[in-house]
Specification:
The structure holds 2 protein chains of 2 kinds. By secondary structure, chain A is of the alpha+beta class. Chain A contains 3 helices and 2 strands, in the order H-H-H-E-E. Helices cover about 45% and strands about 15% of the residues of chain A. Chain B starts with a strand and ends in a 5-residue tail after the last helix. The chains are: A alpha+beta, B alpha/beta. The interface between A and B is medium-sized, with 16 and 17 residues.
């Protein structure tokens, strides 16, 4: 850290600028169309529910929308007990 | 050739109504025939900021529904006779505004005035989309602050897709008006600066309105900022912006309220 930084309190505006640029680049590209991450989340959970009886609170979903890469994590606890298989139509 | 303009922002409280009144009054003071139209159905305030709240008889919805003729609903300003106001309704019936009805009223206003300035409600609902529906130009009022910039971006997207011009493949002229700007804080890196905002929104700048006590003072008194104290910093900034709207090439400056040594020492006396 240079001596200057000690005296110059860094403003928060550059952080605001960077956050906006990342957010808006994402919002502009997905404008008017449903969010891919949301579709994936819903469809994956639908498929899981088709085969396994899962309680809603046993599913952990986290989403992190980034500039170039987004992350979708779905954590499902599948119990081993018999009878957990849902009817497969 | 009349021009229909919407003053919009997405976010509330950034200065749409102040801007509508100030620009309308500045254009009218320069001899133009101007009407300012309040689209904030249920929460009208342009009448109050213009100082005409006790003279409202009919409103936009009455005209849209045919219960009143346009000339009956228009309120002529007492200070400038080329300035008129078409107030919004105070009843909460937003669905009373139909697209056809609004289109008809705008058409009628075009025939009477040089400038039709529509004060949009906040948000992106029906009232906001109807306010922008038939316009030629848009002024996007933005505070140098993250939520305001984000909402401006959203509104720009709507202007490019939901307006009649956009649907016909034509372009709407869009301008950014930055309000509540504090040059000193921006210089210290505590506030987004002008270049940041323009860079993010990629639109031309119509003006920079400095943060000023005068804006509240004018609204307290029911006077557009540009009429209350013409020498104040925001009045000069709005007057410059109005001249740019008319196509004049006015150098971009950030006016400041001059404070003398004694003012600073003793604080400003109440007017």
């Amino acid at each position: 850290m240079s001596l200057m930084n000690l005296f110059r309190r860094r403003g928060s505006a550059p952080v605001a600028r960077e956050r906006l640029q990342i957010l808006l680049s994402h919002e502009r590209s997905s404008r008017g169309q449903p969010d891919l991450l949301t579709i994936l989340r819903d469809e994956i959970l639908e498929v899981v529910a088709k085969h396994v009886n899962v309680e809603r609170d046993q599913v952990r979903v986290t989403m992190d929308r980034g500039d170039n890469v987004s992350m979708l994590e779905i954590d499902v606890e599948v119990p081993h007990a018999a009878g957990t298989l849902a009817a497969v139509g | 050739m009349s021009k229909v303009i919407v003053v919009t922002s997405g976010k509330g409280g950034v200065g749409k109504t102040t801007t509508t009144a100030a620009l309308g009054a500045a254009l009218a003071a320069a001899g133009q025939n101007v009407v300012v139209v309040d689209f904030d159905v249920g929460l009208r305030n342009l009448d109050l900021v213009m100082g005409a709240e006790r003279r409202v008889v009919y409103d936009l919805i009455n005209v849209v529904q045919g219960a009143a003729k346009l000339p009956q609903a228009l309120i002529r300003d007492k200070r400038i006779d080329t300035l008129s106001l078409l107030p919004a309704s105070q009843t909460r019936d937003k669905d009373a505004l139909t697209e056809e009805g609004v289109g008809r009223v705008i058409q009628e206003l075009r025939a009477k005035f040089d400038w039709v300035i529509c004060d949009s409600p906040a948000g992106i609902e029906r009232g906001a989309t109807l306010a922008m529906r038939f316009v030629d130009e848009a002024i996007i009022v933005t505070n140098p602050e993250v939520s305001s910039v984000r909402d401006s971006d959203r509104i720009i997207g709507l202007l490019d897709s939901k307006t009649e011009k956009a649907e016909k493949g034509e372009r709407i002229e869009k301008h950014i008006l930055i309000t509540r700007y504090d040059a000193a804080r921006a210089a210290r890196g505590e506030m987004l600066n002008i270049a940041d905002v323009l860079d993010i929104l990629s639109l031309p700048l119509l003006g920079i309105i400095p943060e000023s006590e005068e804006v509240l003072r004018a609204s307290n008194l029911g006077s557009p900022v540009t009429l209350n104290d013409v020498t104040s910093a925001p009045a000069r900034a709005y007057t410059d912006a109005a001249r740019r709207l008319k196509g004049h090439d006015v150098p971009m400056t950030i006016p400041s309220d001059r404070k003398g040594f004694l003012d600073k020492l003793f604080g400003r006396r109440a007017a």
